[in-house]
Amino acid sequence: MSVCVSYLLQFGWERNDYDLLAAGSLAGHLIECGAQSTGGIFTDWHKVPDWDNMGFPVVECSSDGSFVLSKPPKTGGLVSFGTVAEQLVYEIGDPRRYLLPDVICDFSQVVIQEVPGDEGGAVRVTGAQGFAPSHDYKVCATYMDGFRATAVCPVTGPRAAKKARRTAESIIKRTKKMFKQLGLEDFSSVNIQVLGAEDTYGANARYKDSREAVIWLAVHHKQKKALELFSREVAPAGTGMAPGLTNIVGGRPRVSPVLKPFFFLHPKSQLKVDVHIGGELVESLSEEEPDTPVQDEAPPASVEDVPDADLPSGPHSYRLEELAYTRSGDKGDSANIGVVARHPLYFPYLKKHLTSSVVGEYFSHLIKPGVKNAVTRYTLPGIHGLNFVLQSSLGGGGVASLRSDPQGKAYGQMLLDLKLRGLPDLKSLVD
To answer: Where would I find the Acyclic terpene utilisation N-terminal domain in this sequence (predicted)?
Structure first.
């Protein structure tokens, strides 16, 4: 919102210049996470120089809404089509309806073009569209939902993963016996992961065991005293269970409250803002109920959303990383994975082969059981990209989740290993 206000003041835009406000909002979206648009957490991380001196993004804006994104000279990092396109798809839902208080943005047709000759890289960004804002504000609230604790313990030696899993299960079994003796309820939920055994990948795991593993044991309970008991009972594993448990990272697990988030829309007309100066009320602001309704549904699917049925097939298979960049993030208990084609000629094949059902099956072990149509796919033809939204896939999300990746930061990286089969020789198309 502050980005829009600065544009209004600097360029004299009006509050109903929705395309321009969408462009200003896009500039804010691309730079809000700092180095994430200048090479931070980029898929091709090995091509990004000087992490120790990362340059943050600089945006040079024009009155027509276009802007150039670059970084200061003699700084580390990289500005390219890929780094900025990844940030465009970061933590969004439907790219055609990105809801903000001042404008509804359509980023689906945004174009990112590299500017030649600029040291460290630069891109010109155009094509944002905007519509009248919604009649509602987006609200994020929290409520108390019991307590949590997490134990992290490295385990070393032969069959480390098996030792780690049995250790975690034994700690839970031991603690449950004590709960029963003391008349306490059972855990609300328990999450056991063995990092190093690729538990996060579910059925897609390749390496089930190694000589090093890490126990990730997170628990949730309504009562704090129950988790204080759990916290004490982790330490005996170091002397009474598997050999090779070397440490409890951070010492005895800390018990902390769970503030669970929930989201809803609230009518703007039901809110009043009071402005006080020097302790005195000088103005009360409220928004009147609009006479005309705002269209709440997304615009109809465009031609670009429909896969080309006439694409040739072939004997080749490719890991997704060979064809695309990915970036993932969270919105509450939902995750999104943006996929951007490395070359425009790859895009039709991604649309045909990387469907919502394919992505849903790949991440089925992380999606809450019983959720139907959990994965929705959107297209961003301007950057030859796809955006997948995975509902109920983060175990509650944020501090409410017991997982080692509560915000889906690794989902995009995990998807890079997905193999797309039955394709022609795509590399020959771009050589």
So the answer is: 8-277
